[in-house]
């Protein structure tokens, strides 16, 4: 029993030494002053916890009916128009008025993808699959919101053209 206790004490001391040796590489830097605040949270925008920062302005929906280019294969397309007041419930889906098979031609809107008519087993259904019925699970409206972080994403066509240039 004493041997187990000694092993436990030695392991506890070793783990404490490991924790002390694995500190932040900037540990030699002086600690920030109590009034200085460093934040990793982009929503607080550097405001201290005891201060409520003003809310940023709401992004405006781009209502131009121009489809944006997709960034990657299989990306759900964004919605190029306002959808305020659209009802999407288990009984009604306002999106399907324009994007159904019948409505697409009448309203000159793209019809929902054929994948939206497939169940989880790949069987084609007559109506939109319940898995794909709530459009805002995947599709979002286009806004004029600025990017919160820098983005160097290249779509597949840009990557291919860069490889050809080499």
Features:
166 residues; mainly alpha; 25% helix
> What is the mean pLDDT?
79
Q: Would you list the SSEs in sequence order as H and E?
A: HHHH
Number of DSSP strand runs? 0
Tell me about the largest β-sheet: none
Q: What overall form do the CA principal axes indicate?
A: extended
How much of the polypeptide forms β-strand, as a percent range?
under 5%
User: How widely separated are the two ends?
Assistant: 69 Å
Q: How much helix is in the residues? A: 25-40%
Helix count, DSSP H or I runs of 4 or more residues: 4
Q: Radius of gyration, rounded?
A: 27 Å
Helices and strands: which structural class?
mainly alpha
Low-confidence stretches: 17-24
What does this 3D model show about the protein?
Helices cover 25% and strands 0% of the residues. The protein has helices at 2-21, 95-99, 101-107, 156-165. The longest helix has 20 residues, at 2-21.
Give a short synopsis of this structure:
With 166 residues, this protein is an all-alpha fold.
Record the SSE blueprint.
Blueprint: H1 2-21, H2 95-99, H3 101-107, H4 156-165
């Amino acid at each position: 029993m004493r041997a187990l206790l000694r092993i436990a004490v030695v392991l506890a001391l070793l783990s404490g030494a490991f924790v002390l040796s694995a500190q932040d590489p900037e540990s030699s830097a002086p600690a920030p002053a109590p009034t200085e605040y460093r934040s990793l949270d982009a929503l607080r925008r550097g405001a201290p916890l005891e201060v409520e920062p003003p809310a940023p302005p709401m992004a405006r929906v781009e209502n131009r009916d121009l489809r944006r280019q997709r960034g990657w294969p299989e990306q759900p397309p964004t919605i190029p128009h306002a959808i305020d007041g659209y009802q999407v419930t288990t009984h009604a889906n306002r999106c399907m008025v324009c994007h159904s098979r019948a409505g697409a031609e009448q309203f000159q809107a793209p019809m929902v993808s054929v994948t939206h008519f497939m169940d989880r087993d790949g069987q084609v259904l007559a109506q939109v699959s319940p898995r794909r019925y709530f459009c805002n699970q995947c599709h979002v409206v286009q806004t004029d919101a600025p990017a919160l972080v820098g983005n160097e994403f290249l779509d597949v066509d840009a990557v291919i053209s860069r490889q050809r240039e080499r």
